[in-house]
Amino acid sequence: ACRSLAASPLLGFRGVAVQQAEDFDQVLVPEGYRARPFFSWGDAVLSDAPAWHPDASDDWQAQLKQAGDNHDGMHFFPFPEAPDSHGLLVINHEYVNPPLHPNGMTLADGRRPLDEVKKEQAAHGASVIEVRKDADGQWQRVMPSRYNRRISGFTPMRISGPLAGHEAMKTVADPSGLEVLGTLNNCSSGFTPWGTYLICEENWHNYFVNHDQADFARRVSHKRYGLANEGMSKLYGWETADARFDATPDASQPHGGYVNEPHRFGWVVELDPFDPDSQPVKRTAFGRYCRECSALSLGDDGRMAFYSGDDTKGEYIYKFVPSGRFDAANPRASRDLLDEGTLYVAQFSAEGRGRWLPLVHGEGGLTAVNGFASQAEVLLNARAAADLLGATPMDRPEWVAVHPTTREVYVTLTNNDGRGTRQPANDANLRPANLHGHIIRWNEAGADPTATEFTWEFFLLAGEPEGATTAAGDAVPANLIGTINGDLFSSPDGLAFDQAGRLWIETDYEDRDTVMQAMGCNQLLCADPQNREVRRFLVGPRGCEITGITWSPDYRAMWINVQHPALSYPASDGKTRPRSTTVLITKNDGGVIGT
Ligand code: FEO
Ligand code: CA
Ligand code: CA
Ligand code: CA
Q: Which InterPro entries does the record match to this protein (predicted)?
């Protein structure tokens, strides 16, 4: 990578230092900026929500009216009348942690208590909250608001697109295959040009188990995604209290009981935040995998692409190209635009060239003989289809960001300790035991989001500088040396551009791991895509990851998420239990963030 000593004109702030203190329980931002906790797990969303109890004794009914846990992807939707001072903030709640309950997650006689399971399901999903600047110009949450809403693991959702009503989507509880309850593991997100939010379902496979060994061995739609096939489901054992999560086939029940329930997750969920009565829609044309994000690239002619990473070691990067175009003069025509289109998977070749391979039934061997009876099966088993096409296995693709003017596309490959062993190295994933991750960027041919060829290069390899030594005085191994021009970090995850073209990078690594000692607590950094300079803008409390990022349209307010802090945050008093929190960042002089 090229290195430049010239300071970037895009980065106007003074960087903050790495924070290595074991008891660091703050959010640190540059001089001249302020970070304010804005929306924490348990805060009221609906006006009749009970006040959050610090001992976590709120029951599942209360949780359904309060902010969920593990805030992740989010987006600010402005009201057209006052875009820079009034909007809706939509925030994903990815998963739950033991401090959700007074005494952590419990098990009695091999079963999870139903009340705990229900609270955990209630704490997943998303929050829609109305936000507005008050008379003093300070952003506040609006309460009550007709827009405020909690989406959870219970919320009924419509299934649309090629899998709607398909045999593979039917269960004993939903013989129509048209309606599913809830969304789970809502990691990153996306938005459309017509003002809707896209919730992405990431590690849904961890919520199910299939105990039938023979069935599991041949059921690609379970096995290829890593469902548990013995003991309890990998995350919470919900199936011990709620039959819906036991995907073992049951021949005595219509549609095999819940064997198809795992088929109803792994999609993009489209939500209209401005219509609080609207039913969220699972869009199956996007394909089913462990989707991190869904990042829009909009062409001048209204054609578009949505880019996604499948965040698992050795999985792929996809893009979905809707058949139709966005027509700004007629946004209602976009209502079902996401039901028809082409799903592609990326193949990165040597010499910086790449191709998008279409996942289209009948093409490239995606035929009945190979287990793909129709386009519905191709989408349901997108990973297996991508295997067959020869897609490039990546080092855990997380977020994708598209440059606001050039449409250059960036992706974080967060890390992969199995590279070189589980997956052989390839041109785009070079480092064995890639613990620090890297960022790749590419240009679609003709800057056309729908192009099928691109050119790519490494933007940077994360890790320590050349010549770095460990705390013990040994040389840092070559696979952990990076090419960062500026401040040190590991495991890039969240990624987004602001309108001026600053690239914001959020990190997610195990901050107590000895390999991460030089990195300190997790961080938000800002990079200049031209000279590749990287500067640290924010550091979060011990044990958290920094994720989620959005702005008011004038870029004078920025919100980020502190997810799963280990110490007392936001109370920072050494005793109140930690709470995932949306943090508001403003500049004291009212200026644009980053300038
Ligand atoms: Fe939920 Fe891949 O992070
Ligand atoms: Ca996370
Ligand atoms: Ca992530
Ligand atoms: Ca991550």
A: 6-blade_b-propeller_TolB-like (IPR011042), PhoX (IPR008557)
